[in-house]
Amino acid sequence: MSLKRPLSLPFDPIFLAILVAAAFLLFFRLDHRPFWQDEAETACLARNVLKYGVPKAFDGVNLISQEQGREFDADYLWRWSPWLQIYVAAGAFQMGGLTTTAGRFPFALAGLACIWLVYLLAKRRFGDLTWARLAAGLLASTVLFLLFSRQCRYYSIGALLALVILYAFRGDWQSRFGPAALLVGSLVLLFHTNYLLFFSYAVPLLVASVLLYRRELPLRRTLILALVTALLVIPSLKLYRFGQQAGMMDFTLVPNNLGLYFTDLFQFMLPLPVAAGLLWRWRNFFLGRAGPPDEPEERFTLFLGLIILGNIAIMALVPQRFFRYVFHLYPLCALILAWVIRQVWRYHKFSGILLALLLVLTNFLHLVPMGWLGIVNRPDHNHIFMLTYPNIPLKLLVTELGYGYPDTNRSLIQFFKTQARPGETILATYGDLPLQFYTSYRVLGGLQGSISPRESPDWVAKRRITRLNRQGLFLEAEEFIRHHLRLKEDYRQEVLPYPDERFGNIPEPGYHRFLAPGEPFPHLTIHRQGPEVP
Amino acid sequence: MPLVPAARWRKLLLAAGLLLVLASGLVQLPEIGPRLLPERFWSRHLFEAQESVTLAEMRLDRVDATLTALAGAEKHGLPHLQEGRRPTAAGFAAAWRRTQALRQRRWEDAQEVQEVRQQLQSLREDLGKR
Whole-prediction pTM value? Predict the structure, then answer.
């Protein structure tokens, strides 16, 4: 029985059901936890865009910085990271007001569009409805994909553009203007989303297409498109001070980064047994003993695998390693896994069903074999109800959304909103940016850089975890508290009944908690200027 | 001719492998493991947590040893190096500050890991009471 179906339906009820379920998981209670530090950076800059027209790091009261002021010059124009996400958030704030839901909405929408586009790519470009449904279903049930897409950050836009590029690439860009313009446009937009994604994606895309689709690459047109892309991208390199950041590369970290990225890939994206199976299947191609597979779907799956490999190889050059830098590869992994499920189903139906169940409902295939091999990588402080342990991820997400979570940033925001007075100054050793976004106070500290010794903050939120700067030294906010404040003498301490967690609503799998921690946990501690009340 | 064809063996192996992953994952689930094999589940996780605590404390000890060595060098002078460049006073001070900062982080890491271990312990007791 062929699994390819005629594409005559006006709409696909199965895909519609997947889309509705995904929309629920993406949009339900988008504001159930406030922005964490990185999201708040985007949100604060977006708010300043509404005020000044451009992303300024200073609004006359508060300074937005997580790199000790390296992100801007004297004019405070943001030049550290690309602006697309900032303008997207600004547009959302313009329409929906300065709220958490408005800030996250366009990014969640991009997440939903990813699921739609994964479906469209497999269905339109390969005419394979089963593959399309499976890939869309897998992506919609991937909790980390949903978590990252529910953030007011570039992540989902990066994933969407990565898919648009693939969609355009498999279109008739060689002879038609539309797909060619779409290809160039989405590459340029990817650059303005995050230039690390652009370089790590565009280069392997080109290499993989030379390896697998050489005959479909007309030299002249390919060169023209590459040139147009370069011309559109190069002027912005100066704006974002690319040269200065390229100087921060540390090649000694590459082997370690490679190991950790691959561990993350196997633990959270493409399970090791699947990757090993694919490697075995395509061994002759990798050893140069055979050409690429003839079947278009399989060739495209190999193409996606090569892009992922190249992407990780390039990203390993960047010293700061975060899972978020490979997040845009999730749709590619969904397409690969869906193809694998279909192949296994064709081979042995029971195994196909089992594999699909394992991948959609659990993270067992990602974690259990890694545990057997003893190469599980998770921070020491991880809890058994996190994605770093075998779990039913969708259950964890629905529990978090349904029952809520005592978010550290929300506890701080609510405390200061009720306790502080207008015009007061707060010094926070971390989480300064959420406070800047949600309250009207002057907020110092965090990773902003030096603090004048003349400052005398009315409030001090000394967070439990001490952050160090790039040189491995205490951040200025910590030094300021140590050397210029007398917390015991001049401040009175209040211990809040809420946990002091490292980040708040961070989506990174090693840090995102779905269930509230039970006691004993570190409590948030605030210092208020003034003598001890007897 | 073999009793069971090779292709069939491969299918059986594939299904068995997947079933093994499923079964192993199920007994490791926090919702099932403590009910099905409570001793095995908790001893494994508490052992892992204890290992992490020990590791975090070892890291802390290592930083402490560095600080002691730096303090000794400051008091008695730096060991004579035949060829190598002698550290400057500023370099020495920077190393001291970096190690102190690292010590603070290591101490906090050890605390955090210890708390997770205690959380697991109290979760175990809670489930035991039910």
Answer: 0.93
